[in-house]
Amino acid sequence: MGNPIVITNVSQTVAPTPSTLQSTGAFISQGALNTAPGTVSLLTQLSDLTPLLVGKLNVTSITWSTNVATVTTAAPHGYTNADTLWITIAGASPIGYNGTFLCTVTGTSTFTYALGTNPSGSSSTGTYVTESGTEVVQMATTFFGQGANQAVYVLELGPGSPTDGVTYLTSWITAHPGFFYSYLVPRNWDAVAGYLTFLAGFENTNSKTYFFTTTTIGNYTNYTATMKCAVVMVEAPTLPATEFSLAAPFQVALAYAPSSTNKVTPYAYSFLYGVTPYPTFGNSALLNTLLAAHTSYVGTGAEGGISNTILVGGATKDGNQFNYWYSVDWVQINGDLDLSNAVINGSNNPINPLYYNQIGINRLQQVVASLMGSGITFGLVLNQVVLTKLSSQDLVTALNTNRYGPATIVNAVPFIQYNQDNPSDYSIGKYAGLSVSYTTQNGFINLVFNINVSQFANS
After folding, report:
1. Are 75 and 57 in contact (CB under 8 A)?
2. What is the predicted pLDDT for the residue at 79?
3. Helix, strand or coil for residue 32?
4. How far apart, in Å, are the Cα atoms of 235 and each of 27, 99, 214?
5. pLDDT digits (tens, 9 = 90+) for 144-198
6. Distance CA 361, CA 365 (A)
7. What is the three-class DSSP state of 3?
8. How many alpha carbons lie under 13 Å from residue 262 in its C-beta half-sphere?
């Protein structure tokens, strides 16, 4: 065959793979699982947890002396010497040894706990399980009680004290940045000094990591108004043995899947299932105080004639609703994804390459405008998009004077103006002139209904 008449060149534009970060979360386990520390295990249903559980372990003996019970385990327990952790003893005889106790590790196969009453004899029977072993089952039971449409992970940190767990998690997150969006932490981390310090490391507005924390009436004030990373909740005074209340709103937060037909709903007043409402009788002042401190609790929809239990509160500790920060993070995550995709594809498109010029800036501005338009459709962004081409100073003036009214303003500093202001950026391919100013889509928290009544028949 001779020279072809037509020569075909093919270039490819590759669509971005949607980010799943905001739907990924993990229960924190400290010794509940038979996996190595640092292992991540996926749960798509409650039964997936069963083969991972350490379960109850055997006790060789329990003895009592001077208000202290000493437990000897049948095999090395794996805890760190001198650590303190909560452990449940069951099946011992005399039964006075049974219960959940704060234990101190004294050896590779021993630990002790305070016991003021002599059970009258030693025990050669019984089992033990860490508090984490009980809690992880409670977490999974409550989480999947909300439905089976959302998977979750369990992150094993290894057995130990809350301080051990926080130290390990700090290292793990450093080694795996952005791996999980949300963590459901053990109850005994509440108000631990090291944990409070840890939370302070995630207060930046760019941080996209959240820690769902169960607190108590005595501890909730330990969390500060700068902790935008903390969703804090007080449980009802009494709970069934299978319940970990905060696992329900944790599931709601992970189950958001923004689309035009599945908008992000307000977080406050979300329906919750299989959880115990905090008693309201005689507790009105207390519950109002909790809400003022941005601490959530489980309530009911009785005021609206609805029998379901609901999330009351739903704010992070800085006072913003969780779906506020969800929106901010969604814009960050998808803005990075979409703009990077446009640059990479534009660098491989010989028909319409993306160059650093006014036309290229316009194309990137359209990418952001499209993103924010989707945010409106998905229930994340309030106002319609307006495109502007203002200098940095003119943009500030426009925002301060409310020139464009209620709008989502996507601004791109013009090519010539930007390079006059930043003469060194063009040579290194840097453009920092794209910005967006927007309002999140929020729900109603409080309503005031005004009524005027009259005695005049013709009024």
Report:
1. yes
2. 84
3. coil
4. 17, 21, 7
5. 999 999 999 999 998 888 998 999 999 999 999 999 999 999 999 999 999 999 9
6. 6
7. coil
8. 5
pLDDT of residue 369: 98
**Tell me: the pLDDT tens digits for 60-85?**
999 999 999 999 999 998 888 888 88
User: Where are the chain's structural domains?
Assistant: 21-50+133-320, 54-131, 335-437
Dump strand ranges (E) for 119-260. 127-130, 152-156, 182-184, 210-215, 230-234
* 18-31 per-position pLDDT tens digit: 899 999 999 999 98
Single-letter code of the amino acid located at 308: N
Contact 31, 186 (CB under 8 A): no
Extract the tokens encoding 116. 């003021």
Count of helix runs (H) and strand runs (E) in the chain: 9, 18
Residue 360 amino acid letter: G
- Going by their DSSP bridges, the two strands 57-65 and 182-184 should be labelled as unpaired
Residue appearing with tokens 């270039």: 11
The answer to whether domain 54-131 has CATH 1.10.10.10 is no
Contact 87, 129 (CB under 8 A): yes
- Rounded-to-integer distance, Cα 98 and Cα 117, Å: 12
Of 173, 155, 182, nearest to 41 (Cα)? 155
Residue 55 in this model has a pLDDT that exceeds 90: no
Rg (CA), the chain: 28
Q: What angle in degrees, to the nearest 10, is found between the helix axes of 247-255 and 131-144?
A: 50
**160-169, 235-244, 326-335: which range is least confident on average?**
160-169
Contact 26, 155 (CB under 8 A): yes
Q: Bridge-partner residues for 183, per DSSP?
A: 26, 211
Helical H segments across 109-210, by residue range: 131-144, 162-175, 193-199
pTM: 0.91
Residue that the structure tokens 């794996």 belong to: 78
The one-letter amino acid code at 394 reads: D
Task: Round to whole Å and give the CA distance between 193 and 284.
Answer: 30
